[in-house]
């Protein structure tokens, strides 16, 4: 079979399975077995959403720190599969802001060590000055 024939045969399949976004009410979406999200019907839940565990025809938005998520079947809580830029994934499926939980503590430790070093220098200067006076 030629490439043109293969493309011609696959084109209708691709067009019929492509994501469709239609403005409809929730009831209309449910009637057509589509998924409702923010005033639109979709043939499947769009990116950054997940299927509602309580309503089979509704998509819910992932937490803002997630790029992609799914719902934990037991707890019914969204589980981040990938995090947005600037966030790191935790083992429990959450996302933590890297700057707040990594960079800030490192900066605080550096400041603390600098203060301790400064105090050490001040103490050495005081002791040196005292020893110098006693030797005179």
Topology (elements, then pairings):
Layout: H1 3-17, E1 21-23, H2 26-31, E2 35-37, E3 40-42, E4 49-51, E5 59-61, E6 66-71, E7 78-83, E8 87-89, E9 95-97, H3 98-135
Antiparallel strand pairs: 1-3, 2-3, 4-5, 6-7, 8-9
Explain what you see.
With 136 residues, the chain is of the alpha+beta class. The protein has helices spanning 3-17, 26-31, 98-135, and strands at residues 21-23, 35-37, 40-42, 49-51, 59-61, 66-71, 78-83, 87-89, 95-97. It has a three-stranded antiparallel beta sheet. A two-stranded antiparallel ribbon has the order 4-5. The longest helix has 38 residues, at 98-135. The radius of gyration is 30 Å and the shape is rod-shaped.
| Quantity of strands, as a count | 9
Structural class: alpha+beta
In N-to-C order, the SSE pattern is: HEHEEEEEEEEH
Low-confidence segments: 13-18
Distance between the termini: 105 Å
Main beta sheet: strand number and arrangement? 3 strands, antiparallel
C-alpha Rg (nearest Å): 30 Å
Strand content: 15-25%
The residue fraction in helices comes out at 40-55%
Query: How confident overall, as mean pLDDT?
Result: 82
* Oligomeric state as shown: single chain
Number of helices: 3
Strand order within the widest beta sheet:
1-3-2
Anisotropy-based shape: rod-shaped
List keywords for this structure.
single chain; 136 residues; two-stranded antiparallel sheet
Give a short synopsis of this structure.
The protein is α+β, with helices and mostly antiparallel strands and 136 residues long. Helices cover 43% and strands 24% of the residues.
